[in-house]
Amino acid sequence: VMSKTPFDPEQRKQLETQLELFNTLLAGNNFVIGETLTLADLALLATISTIDVAQCLKDFNVNVRKYAHIQKWYENMRAVTPGFKENQEGCLEMKKFLEGQ
């Protein structure tokens, strides 16, 4: 991201494959592992939040919101994760920085 090199199409394809798998795993669940918030959810929330913010990058073209189960999980996580609002403020600052690149 910071090196300003174009995003590798092969890496994008691999990322989308992993997002499709994650989307499938979330089907029928409110959280990554069943119906309880776990450390796995928090770790993946950091990743999904970063990918969501990175949409502003030229050539990135990965939209986590197009995956229905990820979108539902992401919205749920925004509502139930302690400190999400404070963390999101930092993500939005990062987005502003990246957009200025």
Automatic annotation (TrEMBL):
Q: Which InterPro entries match?
A: Glutathione-S-Trfase_C-like, Glutathione-S-Trfase_C_sf, GST_C
| GO terms under biological process | glutathione metabolic process
Task: Specify whether Cell division is a keyword of the entry.
Answer: no
Q: Which keywords belong to this entry? A: Transferase
Q: Name one GO molecular function term.
A: glutathione transferase activity
The residues forming the signal peptide are: none
Where in the numbering of this chain does the GST C-terminal domain appear? 1-98
> Which Pfam families does its entry note?
GST_C (PF00043)
Q: Please give the superkingdom of this protein's source.
A: Eukaryota
Official protein name in the record: Glutathione S-transferase 1-1
Organism listed in the record: Bactrocera dorsalis
Organism taxonomic ancestry: Eukaryota, Metazoa, Ecdysozoa, Arthropoda, Hexapoda
Gene field:
GSTT1
